[in-house]
Amino acid sequence: MPKLNVLVAGSTGYIGVQLIKLLVKHKNINIKYLCGSSSVGKKITSYEKSLKSKNLPKITKFNKSFLKEVDLVFTALPNGEAQSISNSLLKHNVLIDLAADFRLNNASLYLKWYKQNHRSISNIKKSIYSLPEITGEKVKNFNIIGCPGCYPTSILLPLIPLIKKNLIKVNNIIIDSKSGYSGAGRGVHDKYKNKNLYESLSAYGVGFHRHNSEIQQELNSFTKKKVNFTFTPHLTPMFRGILSTIYVDLNKGSTIKKLEKVLINHYPNNGFVKILKTNSLISTNDIINTNNCHISICKTKYKDRIIILSAIDNLIKGGAGQAIQNMNIRFGFNKFRGLK
């Protein structure tokens, strides 16, 4: 099979660099262009020394003429910029966006949560929001693919199968998520320069974090009931990883065993999502530098209430790895290729 020619736009951010580190190991990929803005003319090794042995192009400014020469475009850009690129796509191009431009199905919601007008409304209908373990083969029918955010990935993977089976109450889900500071991008050190970043824990976006819209959209799509949840993210003094602690009440007749059975059936052992034994106290250390998600269901002192723990690497399963998962499905590659 010939290699896909790939363009990575936004190649020097934490997610972009992680994506390149995975793509260079993928035998079906040829990286044709690396694009950036302030980094034009530099080598990617200025941002990641481990890529020194790889024969990669210098960083250049994106030009839509490049689209004639590539099969696949990854966009790891500030919100809004992938929309402009999508308007220039040719028939043979596939775009996989790692930002938020094609996560929401409604342009008015995008304006509400991201404070900017969507510049490619016609392409929203041509795109798919793809959490690979949930979307599956449907992604093959689309040339514009929106990858989930890192927090929503850790939250939706455990909750969607349980909500589909009506095993948990959806009127008061409490979600407490903690992320490594890489989730805030390279500008995190300037943005939080007064927060003692390496020695403190900070709550942010309380009640109104942008990912609320994405979580709400996806949970609502799997039940006719109104889903009410409270989501609070935190920035932690570690570079990478997310641990989400989710508090839910059980529906009548539900048990932990039933919940675990549903999750195990939905996520078989040969995938990236691992369902651990009851009361397993999982850690981000177990999933760092992998495309895995570890999920554990824990008992509480109340029979009808449980706690779900979910851990991912925000840069891989919550970002670059998930994008490659979508690519592998879209083009018919082995699901583990580039991700082991």
Walk me through what this model shows:
This protein is an alpha/beta fold and 340 residues long. Helix content is 26%, strand content 21%. Strands 3-2-1-4-5-7-6 form a 7-stranded parallel β-sheet. The protein is globular.
The helix content, as a percent range, equals 25-40%
- The CATH architecture of the largest domain would be 2-Layer Sandwich
> In terms of structural class, how would the helical and strand content be classed?
alpha/beta
* Beta strand count: 14
CATH class bucket of the largest domain: Alpha Beta
The tally of structural domains comes to 2
Summarize the structure.
The chain is an alpha/beta fold. The chain is built from 10 helices and 14 strands.
Could you outline the blueprint of secondary structure elements for this entry?
Blueprint: E1 4-9, H1 14-23, E2 29-35, E3 59-60, E4 72-75, H2 81-86, E5 94-97, H3 107-114, H4 121-124, E6 127-129, H5 132-135, E7 144-146, H6 150-164, E8 173-180, H7 188-191, E9 202-203, H8 211-220, E10 229-236, E11 242-249, H9 256-266, E12 273-275, E13 293-299, E14 305-312, H10 316-331
Features:
Rossmann fold; single chain; Dihydrodipicolinate Reductase, domain 2; seven-stranded parallel sheet
